[in-house]
């Protein structure tokens, strides 16, 4: 598979890859695959990492480390995070829209606090206060579309 990266990008990717090469043999432990991808601005789920590892082990059951040539196609299967910010915002908005029973684009601040404090990586009370500061209208509602776009931009 030919790389879609420029020579400069490939050099940066190789340098990062080699930071995970603890033996000096030009290979990466499979257990570090996700970490290396995330450092390179990809956002793979643990499930997708497991799928890649299963594919690698399907051709070689004893594989524990991969070379840069094996790593590069895996890296290129994930878009860079910066390139997906619009898609990411849409996913978050769609997720919050499920809680918007009237379809108004607004959620009660209390309900939004409970969602953000209990889903994914929970936010602390202080983080929630800071996040929602100046975003709650006179009716106690938060425009979640504007909130998500503000979070993604920052």
Automatic annotation (TrEMBL):
Residues 8-43 form the EF-hand domain. GO terms for molecular function: calcium ion binding; myosin heavy chain binding. PROSITE patterns: EF_HAND_2. It comes from the Eukaryota. One of its GO terms (cellular component) is myosin II complex. InterPro entries: CALM/Myosin/TropC-like, EF-hand-dom_pair, EF_hand_dom. This is CG17237.
